[in-house]
Structure of Transcriptional regulator:
Amino acid sequence: MVRASLAPFLGASRTAQDAAHEVGVPLTTMTSRIRQFVHFGLLVRVGEQPRRGRPMPLYRAPGSLFIPFDVTPLESDQQLGDVLFQGAQRRLSRSIGAAWVEAAGRRGRPLGLHVYREPGGHVSENVEPRPAPGEQENAFFMDLLSDEQPAVWDSWGVLYLDQAQAKALQRELFALRQRYGGALANGRPYLLRLAVAPLQEEG
C-alpha cells in the first residue's frame, strides 16, 4: 500500500531499512517504492545516516501531502475509496455485529438473515432475530431505539430523489455530523459513517 509505505517518512527522516522494518516489507520492495516516491516528488533525500561502510540515505516527506493516482497500484481511481476505507469498514462491521448480538441476546432470540423485496422492487437484507409470534417484522429495530439497548444503527437502502432533495439530504448529514462532532472527556467512542451517493450499477 502506498499510504503504509509513505507513513514512516511523514514528518520524519528515515532510511529505507528502517521504513521497510516498520511497514513489514522486504528492503528491495521499500527501495523500489522510494524511487517512485522520489520521482513523483513525494520524498526528498535529506541527508545520510553514518554506518560502517557506505552511509545510508535518509528520506523525508512533508507532514501533509497529495498522492497522485499514478503512484498507486490501483487499476481505477474509483477503487480509492475501497482501499482507503476498508480498515474502518471492517471495524465498523465488527462493532455493529457485536452490538446486534448484544441487543438480540437481551431479546432472547438468535440472529438470522432476513431477505425481502422492497415496494420499489429493490431486494434488501437485514441481520436481525426472527420476530416473535405476533410481532411486527421491524420490531427488533424499533427496540434498538429503547434506552436499554446499545446505541447502534445501520441502514442501507436506495432512495429515489431529485437533485434538490439529494442535496438537502447531503447537507442534513453534514449538519448532523457537525452537531455531535464535539469531543466529550467522559464519552464512549462511537464509530460513525454517514454516506450518500448517486447509485452506480455494477458492471
In short: The domain at 2-71 is CATH 1.10.10.10 (Arc Repressor Mutant, subunit A).
